[in-house]
């Protein structure tokens, strides 16, 4: 997991301080736990409602 | 008289200024002196600008003396969070990277306050780029809670909360992306109102998260919050999230009559894992409101179980997009905690981001359905009392839990849905104020203001103020 995190950030041109590596891994694992019950969300039924205004905001 | 002036509200000061019983210069001097004196301990201001403030106060004085009274904000001293643009003035965003940033235009809210004749006394401390809730700022120093200088004032608008509580400004504005108005309002024992998303223009406010950011008043009283809301509301074509809906005369809509008001309570989410002292205080205030005539109903909001995911994903993704270039080019110039959060946001996938937006629609629907049967929803603002400066954990019923995980648990849903929400002090525990959050239906800020107004009339802090402000110490 730690390697995946570091590779993802390195590929984006980011350098990560040594003391962040453990913290990022822990936060990522907590995030994965948070996602575990998302399948109950039935989110696919919802259009996110993102709006794009043709012609720009001032049109 | 002069020493008492900084403790007064806008509502108390306006008639004194209008009727020439006090002068704007006299008032500005009193507030500046209090700010200079208390700032050594509280560090609520990044910059106090005495010379400019006195010049503006002199101009207001001249206008009022000549019969050109602009209204209730004319001559009122205010300091704002240092994230709002002032044309030609340094605006730091609480950062090292932008420490010499000078915008070439005013934020819409700044422009509106200038038109009203507000006297600006300086710029207030904040969490760096508003990305955090402690206001332990690595570049400008930690802001301290005036009730207990060892505690955080909350954040990100911690300077605004502390300055209002310690009478270092008459009122202020904050910004709120996950709770950054309401959290410091709760921690510092003042009023903090996050209006409906789109009600107040965000033009000229440096973003943290485009879809979650709000600007709102932080004040000593509910009336002052209503006054600032009606002053700052209105459609602004320069803010793409601004909503073209009529503003309201919120002060005239204020009523403490709760007969017929239905208050919703959600036990499963908003009263779970709450420190008992906070919970008891909030429940006690709800009973007070019931005695005043409100009816209490229990409500279900199933999508709230996903709200922490949606808030975390949305705020981290949008913030990391905004700061990406600087994170690549000059990462060492960010504070360590902000750099960590920005790194984490780079890891979130687009699929997760879009799922989070779907959950926001679910939340919108759940809340809309619930508000068909209730006027407001009441929750604690924070599940814990303010923690020590420098600590990364909080104590909830004896358990040490992550500050980051707990701090926006109850305020985040207001940002995800954009619904109006206010924090009002409802009591004191361990010498620290406890905040109660009142949420309402979209564009019905009067609902939350009225319930807050009724609670305020019961004097929940019993007149107590931080010892710093010169009032009787606890």
Strand fraction of chain A equals under 5%
Spatial separation of the terminal alpha carbons of chain B = 23 Å
Using the alpha-carbon principal axes, give the shape of chain B: globular
Radius of gyration of chain A: 18 Å
Radius of gyration of chain B: 21 Å
> Low-confidence parts of chain B, pLDDT < 50 over ≥5 residues?
470-474
Low-confidence stretches of chain A: none
Structural class category of chain B: alpha+beta
- Summarize the biggest pleated sheet of chain A: none
Quickly count the helices of chain A: 2
Give the helices and strands of chain A as they follow along the chain.
Answer: HH
On the 0 to 100 scale, the average pLDDT of chain B is 97
How many distinct domains of chain B? Answer: 1
Describe it.
Chain A is an all-alpha fold and 59 residues long. In chain A, 47% of the residues lie in helices and 0% in strands. Chain A has helices at 2-11, 18-35. Chain B is built from 16 helices and 15 strands. An 8-stranded mixed beta sheet of chain B has the order 6-8-7-14-15-11-9-10. In chain B, helix 5 runs parallel beside helix 6 (182-188). Mean pLDDT of chain B is 97; it is low at 470-474. The A-B interface holds A 5, 8-9, 12-17, 20, 23-24, 27-28, 30-31, 34-35, 37-38, 40-44, 46-50, 53, 57-58 and B 237, 240, 303, 305-306, 308-309, 312, 324, 327-328, 331, 336, 339-340, 343-344, 346-347, 352, 354-355, 357-362, 405.
